[in-house]
Backbone:
């Protein structure tokens, strides 16, 4: 049986700054943590949670070279992506830093 309890959002009071101190005290006393729906919604609306959407938007807006207007554009990524079980890079997990034109070798950053 799981120790995770789910509460209905309307019955939950709004999160305050003093609750973080309460969470530290509860963690020290080994009491269960109560997760707030309001905090979760704030996390979903934060820019960091939309990283994949931002990446897709950048890929879409950089489909042609600004120098020669050809469509042969390759994304330039850092080597910080996640590896799957077979040791290959998970597509879309590496940091997108720029683009390179396959025709004229022009490079630009995002
Ligand atoms: Zn080009």
Residues:
């Amino acid at each position: 049986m799981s120790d995770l309890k789910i509460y209905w959002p309307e019955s939950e009071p709004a999160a305050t700054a003093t609750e973080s101190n309460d969470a530290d005290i509860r963690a020290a006393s080994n009491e269960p943590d109560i997760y707030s729906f309001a905090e979760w919604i704030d996390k979903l609306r934060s820019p960091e949670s939309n990283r994949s959407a931002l990446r897709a938007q950048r890929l879409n807006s950089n489909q042609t070279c600004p120098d020669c207007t050809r469509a042969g554009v390759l994304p330039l990524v850092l080597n910080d992506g996640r590896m799957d079980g077979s040791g290959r890079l998970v597509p879309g997990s590496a940091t997108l830093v720029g683009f390179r034109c396959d025709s004229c070798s022009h490079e630009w950053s995002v």
Summary: The chain has two domains: 9-45, 52-109. The radius of gyration is 22 Å. The mean pLDDT is 82.
